[in-house]
Predict the structure.
Amino acid sequence: MNSEQIIDRTKKWIIDVVIGCNFCPFAANVAKQESIFYKVEESTDKKICLASFLSEMKRLDNDPSIETSFLIFPNAFQKFHDYLDLLSLADDRLKRNGYEGIYQVASFHPLYLFANSDENDPANYTNRSIYPMLHLLREESMTKALANYKDPESIPMRNIDFAKKKGLAYMKMLRDTL
């Protein structure tokens, strides 16, 4: 699969799952404005992937028309624990490069597993994507969006409740039909 196809599948996942299930109440507006940037990193080398992560933060620095960026790893970090190592290193890189408070990282992985949850818990599908990916968000934009949203603290629990009510078969089918 080439980069364009990977990006198309990722966009469909965002529309069908993230927006369709309202997991992120702010995603629809950003998608509609076409202010999402997608970057496919083909490498499996952790250092190259982290360099791409840093490049995405610099891209956001240099292009205010991009609200958020998805860095997609179709060939790397297939094991969730390997992905968690990448996530930790990416968060460290964000801080070491002076981006703490400017950007935040959201995590998505095909085998996402919340701490202390069962592998078959439908709630895991709120963060189960079709590829391992890091999602960079602008902190300032998130702060503004959350200020205009009633009870933002309830979003994660609302998402978990939705996934559990729909059930494992539904959540799996929704993600896997992409």
Q: What stands out?
A: The beta strands are 36-40, 68-72, 103-108, 133-138. The helical segments are 3-19, 27-32, 46-62, 80-96, 139-147, 155-166, 168-176. The first helix runs from residue 3 to 19.
